[in-house]
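dude i think i finally got it to work??
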Amino acid sequence: MKKKLISKKKNLEICLAFAGGGCKALYAMGFGSILRKKKIIIKEISGVSAGAASALGLLSETEDETIEYLAELTKRNSSNFKLLSLFGGSSPFPHENIYRRLIRHGMNLEKIKTSKVKIKILTVRAIPKKQTLMEDLWTRAKLITETSKAYLLDERDKQRGLPCNRVSLIMEKWNMEELVYQNRDLKSQEIIETIILNSSSIPPVISFQNHNSMYFLDGGLTNNLLIEKFSKKSKILGIYYEDTTLYGKNRELLEKCFLVKPSKKISISSFDYTNPDGVKECYELGKEDAKNLLPRIIEYCSS
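look at this
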């Protein structure tokens, strides 16, 4: 029945939005892989934080091998916090090193550059680097402290259904702004890695990224599901993990989207880089949910 539905409806098109969520974003890559293999045309794709890595991994068509590679890396990693590394002067968090290796392994520059899919990756352009080291360190520490506190308090209020604006006030105070990278920005493998890390910068787990004398923060700080930048009248499928992701979004826009949340609790936490079984289970859950929802997605695209 599913094959008949697909064969009758050619040129089924959709815009995909992948929310950030650390390891949970592997779910979106699994989900997207089924859509791609079922010949549903992806017109546009957006990603925030780890959702950006999943989006570009999907366009690279390296999903299965990427999951196997990440499972192997996490199998070798014994802890999410390594105290001895701290004493040695390096980061006690292994996440950034593993994340960089995964990006380098899974991104196919040629496929990404030649893709007809319109790409949108969100980050927050934070502050310029200071000239002196001490002033730079102090400014970064102050910004990270204020931003983290505002974000956590806003998330608490969102869960309670309360209005909140602390992050927006911090954005204004520090003159921070959203930046959306597009196809024209993805010029090389190194730049792709930089852009994904910029969108994923969550100090201290993923360090405060800087590029061209400017610091960047995780795009999820302001908008963890980028659905607002797609072409008008598009069919939009958005994948997210927390209800707070939808807080404050335009109600009419949400109502026209096909929104997907995992059908059951994901068996890996966002920053658990020690769980190879969880990596694979998260990815497979995305594939399973996509297969189950496929008739509804086809109907949505056809309407």
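Residues 1-9 have pLDDT under 50 and may be disordered.
im so relieved honestly
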